[in-house]
Structures are given as structure tokens and as C-alpha cells.
Amino acid sequence: MALNTEQKTTLYRNLIRADEFNKMMYRRMMQGKLIGFYHPAEGAIAPGVGAASFLNQDDNLSPHHRGHGITHMLAKGIDIKYYLAEHTGKDTGCCKGRSAFHFSFPDHKVYMMSGFIGYNFAPVVGWGFAAKRRNQGQVVMNCSGDGSYGQGRAHEAMLMAQNWKLPVIFFCENNGMSIFSTAMEMHPKEHISSLADGFGMPSSIVDGQDVFAVAEASVEAIDRARKGEGPTFIEAKTLRFNEHDIGTPDLSGWEERSEEEHASMREREPVRIATARVLDEGILTQSAIDQIIEEALAEVQGVEDFADSSDIARPSVEQLMDGVFAK
Length: 327
Description:
Elements: H1 5-30, H2 46-52, E1 60-62, H3 70-76, H4 81-87, H5 121-134, E2 140-145, H6 152-163, E3 168-174, E4 177-178, E5 181-182, H7 183-186, H8 194-197, E6 203-207, H9 211-226, E7 232-237, E8 251-252, E9 255-256, H10 259-266, H11 270-280, H12 286-309, H13 317-322
Helix pairs in contact: 1-3, 1-11, 1-12, 2-3, 2-9, 4-12, 5-6
């Protein structure tokens, strides 16, 4: 599905924002200014931006853990200052500073993050079932990595979604690595999307370094889901430039990834690819690009200022219990 100039500009702007936020999170982690840990998104920012930029506010989104979902959430319109405040243990955080890297933005239909690989598959089927019953054109964007498709619940979710024609997009961000294990070791076929064939589910493979290609496939799948035509599987072939999470050895199997591999990957940097495209097609001028970068940096600074100036969360026992039991 071809994108228009306005859509391409939105994607480029969100890609730059995602890049600058990822750099900020990496820097703050190295400075000791984040609680918990951080899974850097460098090299893999395009899939989240392409998948989420054209969702509606009432569409459900389950972000991937890479970049802690920031690339997905900012593209959907979520104000990241509340998440950074959460990640720094501040009372103004989206979960009142009690969860470190976990998040919840119910108003935007982004409900949770978990430390369990593949946790998302059961909830997204439930959200999809609810969306179908409401019949208001809602869709569910389920983003997860190649490693999650080794989980049994992934296959159960795909089976149920296809049987019931649920409006769910299974969006696989395949960076070829599950911490230290390669996708080639973990899966019997080259393409994770081949799993969809067994369920009769439409699927596509896209260049996950090209935000425009990702968005084209996502818009088409979203349109199918809104029309009641059922689920789609999208496999975005992307890259992980850094270690799994900051401080973990950058290994492939038992061996450190080589300088040659890193150099080859960085030739496929998403911002570089997108910048060349918008300039070549005359969508943006260099001065317009510079302005977008300046605005993104100002946004990041504002988010940091908000988090840093917020009070540290010091909940009482009673306040902590409020988040445990329903009333």
C-alpha cells in the first residue's frame, strides 16, 4: 500500500524521535540514572515506528521489549515523559514509580510489559476477541521478537486468532538474535513468517531497516483487520547493533560478534536509509531535516527535565497494596 507524502513525513519525524530517545536512554543507563536495565534499540528502531505510527488511539498495542517499547509508544502518541519518570522511580511515572521498566497507558490501550518472553500472546487474543465483539473497527498490534515464537502460547494465539478471524496483527521483529542464540539455531526454517502458513494466515516479509516498507505492510494489515478479514503475520527483518541489554556480553553463541559483523550491520542504519529516501524523493530538504532533529532533541530534553525534577516515589504500604487488589 503506497504511502503519501504526509505519511512519509510523519514516519521520518517519528524515526528521528525514536533514535534520539534511544540515545538518551542509553546515556542515562550508563550514567546510572535509570532504575533496572535497558535493552538498547539501536539498529532496530524502524519496526516499532512503522508498526505503530498509523494506529488509532483506541487500537490495542503490545510493544516489543527492545528499546523498552519507546519507539512503538511515541509513534502511537504516548507522552514518554511519564515513562522516563517511571524508569527513574519518580512519583509522576505512569505506574507511580513502582515498576522500573514496566509500563501501563490504559488511555492509549497499552496495558503492560512483562519480563516473560511471549507473555503478550494470550492477552492479545483476548483484546482481539473483545474488539471483534464490539465491532467498532479496533485492531490489535502485537509486537514481539523472533525468540517469542518458540513459545507454545504463540502458536495457540495464532490458531485462535485465525479460527475466529480476530483483528490481530502478529508483528515479528526478527533481529536474528535471542539474547545469545541465533534465530537459525532456534527455528528450523529461515523465515519465522513460515509459521503462519500452517494456520492459513496471510503473511509478509519486509525490510525492517526501512521504516517506509514496514509502514506499508502494517497499514495494509491494519486495513484488513479493520474490515473484518482476520489476522496477518508480518516479519520485519531487522538488526540488533548492541548487546541484548547494557552490560551483557555481546555474544553469538559462545563467541563475541566480530567488528566486521558490526561494520556490515551499521551500513543498514535505519535513519541513514530513511534520510536518503526523503532527500532523493524531495519529501524533505536538509533544512527541514535539521529542524526535525532540533525539535526531537528539545522534546528529549523536556522529558528528561520532567523526570529529573519529579519527586522520588515513596509509597506507603497502604499505597502499595492499592495496586495489588481490585476494589
